[in-house]
Amino acid sequence: MSGSGAAPGPGSGSGSSPAACRFAHYFVLCGIDADSGLEPDELAGENFDQSPLRRTFKSKVLAHYPQNIEWNPFDQDAVNMLCMPKGLSFRTQTDSRDPQFHSFIITREDGSRTYGFVLTFYEEVTSKQICTAMQTLYQMHNAEHYNSVCASSSCSMDSLASSLDEGDTTSLLKLQRYNSYDISRDTLYVSKSICLITPLPFMQACKKFLVQLHKAVTSQQPPPLPLESYIHNILYEVPLPPPGRSLKFYGVYEPVICQRPGPSELPLSDYPLREAFELLGLENLVQVFTCVLLEMQILLYSQDYQRLMTVAEGITTLLFPFQWQHVYVPILPASLLHFLDAPVPYLMGLQSKEGTDRSKLELPQEANLCFVDIDNHFIELPEEFPQFPNKADFIQELVEVLLQFGIPPEGSVHCSESTTKLKNLVLKDLVNDRKNGNVSTTNMSMYELLKGNETIARLQALARRTGVTMEKMDLSASLGEKEKDLKLQCEEAELRDYQLNVQLREVFANRFTQMFADYEAFVIQSAQDMESWLTNREQMQNFDKASFLSDQPEPYLPFLSRFIETQMFATFIDNKIMSQWEEKDPLLRVFDSRIEKIRLYNVRAPTLRTSIYQKCSTLKEAAQSIEQRLMKMDHTAIHPHLLDMKIGQGKYEQGFFPKLQSDVLATGPTNNNRWVSRSATTQRRKDRLRQHSEQVGLDNDLREKYMQEARSLGKNLRQPKLSDLSPAVIAQTNWKFVEGLLKECRMKTKRMLVEKMGHEAVELGHGEANITGLEENTLIASLCDLLERIWSHGLQVKQGKSALWSHLIQFQDREEKQEHLAESPVALGPERRKSDSGVMLPTLRVSLIQDMRHIQNMSEIKTDVGRARAWIRLSLEKKLLSQHLKQLLSNQPLTRKLYKRYAFLRCEEEREQFLYHLLSLNAVDYFCFTSVFTTIMIPYRSVIIPIKKLSNAIITSNPWICVSGELGDTGVMQIPKNLLEMTFECQNLGKLTTVQIGHDNSGLLAKWLVDCVMVRNEITGHTYRFPCGRWLGKGIDDGSLERILIGELMVPAADEDLVKQCRTPPQQKSPTAARRLSITSLTGKATKPNAGQIQEGIGEAVNNIVKHFHKPEKERGSLTVLLCGENGLVAALEQVFHHGFKSARIFHKNVFIWDFIEKAVAYFETTDQILDNEDDVLIQKSSCKTFCHYVNAINTAPRNIGKDGKFQILVCLGTRDRLLSLWIPLLAECPAITRMYEESALLRDRMTVNSLIRILQTIQDFTIVLEGSLIKGVDV
């Protein structure tokens, strides 16, 4: 709803046309066309079992004035369909015939809206022809009914009678009479509606005007002037109130007042929010509001059209400063039910037929549906639904506002009194019949109907004796006084409604102002001019989402990360960028001015986001400004006056709406100077804008086209074409959906790739990371939602809430049947991985059905929607999503059975492109299954690969293994002797990080040279390789009986060609055999790194640790790799300690760094180097002490770790406890260094040692938590 309704609509004709600022555009009359008679309305879902009075017949637009307005063309079909969504309905004198009010909205292609306000009432049918037709229909119906009754043994009337009061035959006859029509005895009435179509939603004013118009028709005295005068007046002589002003114009009997908010206030909304809150209750309303913000599919359901409008308009008005960008049809006519199939976000309202409950409603897709049953005060929410930030405080603040106005926060379910009275009567279905349209019964008809009932008569007599008056009996009481009081009360109630409206809206608006107070800082203004921006719109990133999210309080993230992906947020940011070049969007202007205000009032540091709840402080002012406008009128319109009409026309006949004289209503007065001047200024403004956009270099149409394209991502349809429902149009609409889905798929996969690739490029050192774990989760959730929407488009029959899962299940059933018939060939994965030793991991077969079984075995997932999402995550992680879906769709007979011809899944070319887009996701590694389902049991398989050429194939000792991951470890598991392969099941370990492997050194053959260990997750197929390349055994290598190995994720052979193009950086692995074999075996073989390379290595290792801590916590990856991996800190320090280490030949045995460390400890423990009693000496002394303590703790630990393993533990503990930088100088100055190191060694160079200390100090700011496997058993 734009706040600038006074400006001419798009494509307006002559600028000086006063119509641009008229209060109402059209007056419309709909009803029965006496010439064409009774036409059944096939589109409204004909039901021939119903009695003719209950069927729907076609209505027509009987008249509309003026004929047409150039810039708001009259859409006859749409107006007819929305004025009488259920077609014509008939009544007899025994039925209730109270007038009913409802409103509707028409959204045009460009998103602009027109509002309609309708009063439907009943008029006696005077056409003999129609009465006869109705009589004939009844005779046919009764004959059929009689035959079917005779055919069935018991008569339905009998059973009905017995269920009524026994012997109450009179009421039974009444009942038969009630549901029949006899031309000689009954009067037939038919519905007719009068409607105003306006540019702005002045609901209250239009309702009052129409009610007065109807009263003029039914009252005994003719109205003061012919009706034409009043209609002409509202069409041509009542202007729109200017922004910030109020206006008084005249109805038939009394003035009508309306007011419009000023330019800096919240835009106009005339639907009473009180009703929306009463209908849904506060908690439910906030939940539905959240669904709307996240652009889910929202379906409102109620018997009453006006309730549908009230809730839809109420919720969308609370979105300020955002606007709903998708299909918006608050009243969905019966003929458009196929629109519920739309695979896009929508907000629609559906009229429920009385007596049908929710379970009978066939909805094509429910995975992402929010179903709102307004009449029963009940909502169904989609799964995985994030809560609105600070929801509890927010609700509390709203409760306070509601209670001030005396409204219970839990809402109040009103049934109309008559409905409650009738609840227990069998007659309910017949009497209170709202099947055909919007007419509810009232007590009057009920009383009429039961007049003959003896029970009621007895009650009445009793009531009279006790002095109780029956309801509705005192109609003749003096009305004068009462009416006056009532009028005051009405005005009072209206004012309170306005005030409540504005206060509730202020609370909602304040939430967004607080949440997005700093949004401007994150808008990326990259384009120089509008043309280049519009042309590159799709490729550009307009908003720095990652920085924005990292700036938000943690509890807001689940909601915000999804919200900033929506179309409404994207459009909001687009409008912000566009405002550099054109007039600001009215909503944006108001929102920005509010943010300015906040900045003035609380001077908070813009970077500090706080989750402290800040209440709205502007409630009083907002309520006052409305009150002031209503108290003093700014403008009064011209009074209705006699028109130049032909004599004898405009005759008054009570109870009948007159045939209006069209020539006087076709055009307005010619000289209305005030308006011409005002519209001339709007024309001038338009000319200015036009020149401006011409300078920008785009003519308006082209610009509009660009704008539409730029904004139409995923929202090709705002509202279905109501007018033309030919199969061709429906097909075209579906085609738009198919194109939209494909485009959305392209955008989503591209976004997921770019984000992920960007992230990986950073790990390789190119640029900055810009995806958070949270953001990845949001993108994957929206991919799941897209797949659900694609799978529910064009479904033949709905089964279960998830269309995708139900398709998978049917596919599984068919495949399993065939498997029983013949052993199906297996799609083999890559070849078995061979290693030097010939031991290998068996191939994991690629099987869609197997992956489904994994999901079906997960007891944690309770719903089909959940299973489908888990399956998508698993397939994505295994890089099989595209392949699996291709296999699923390759069963064409099944696809044809499940889907209509127009469904997306049956459009060959689009389907191929869709699968191709999904295939592109294989280029990156996702852990979206492993990281989400953290508590499930997972089977793993491990293989130990020895180097057979150099070691015994058989060992006599008892080996063991312990696998650790980011989520936990397996504990020590014994490996069965001489079996190198084993499977085990344990709770999800997450990404695997380390393997500890060892043996107990028993028996004769106890030395073992292990090449590597392979571990595979049997569900996701992720295979990790843990390189070792060293001996385990006493008296060989460094005498280690256990080693800690660091894992790397293997790339499946099939992906290797893909990966060559876009390599995911591998995790660092455990240092290779070459580097870890003791320094002795290296001499002469490999080239040793020089001093410069070693120093660079240290800098790199420390730098990686610092970077690790600067990432958001959720994506840091493994610290173990950075400490102990191939280029980790331990390896870098080993290089430093190896540099200039004297050749082993001097000592005739292998020498390790640990030997030097032990010598240093021996020296520190024997000498007490007290020089002078200075501070630094004390520090040095305590460092010596801790150093000795740590080394001894490692040496006495109950683990059989070799000398290199001990050095690794020492470095890890020193890093954790911030002691490394204190230990290095001690070691550099201890006497043993001169014996064991060359003169040129790095450790003997004072400058190098000092720079090493400085580098190591940079890690001291971080809290380092070591993985349990690294320091198990070491007690310091």
Main pleated-sheet profile: 6 strands, antiparallel
Q: Report how far apart the termini are.
A: 69 Å
Shape: elongated
- Average pLDDT taken over every residue: 76
The total count of helices amounts to 45
What is the total tally of β strands? 24
Bin the helical content: 40-55%
What gyration radius follows from the Cα positions, in whole Å?
Answer: 40 Å
**DSSP strand content:** 5-15%
Tell me about this structure.
- The protein is α+β, with helices and mostly antiparallel strands and 1276 residues long.
- Helix content is 43%, strand content 11%.
- The strands form 5 sheets. Strands 1, 2, 3, 4, 5 and 6 form a 6-stranded antiparallel β-sheet that branches.
- A hairpin with a 4-residue loop joins strand 12 and strand 13.
- The two termini are 69 Å apart.
- The N terminus is likely disordered.
Short description:
This protein is α+β, with helices and mostly antiparallel strands. It is 43% helix and 11% strand.
Please give a handful of descriptors for the protein shown.
1276 residues; five-stranded mixed β-sheet; six-stranded antiparallel β-sheet; elongated; 45 helices; alpha+beta; single chain
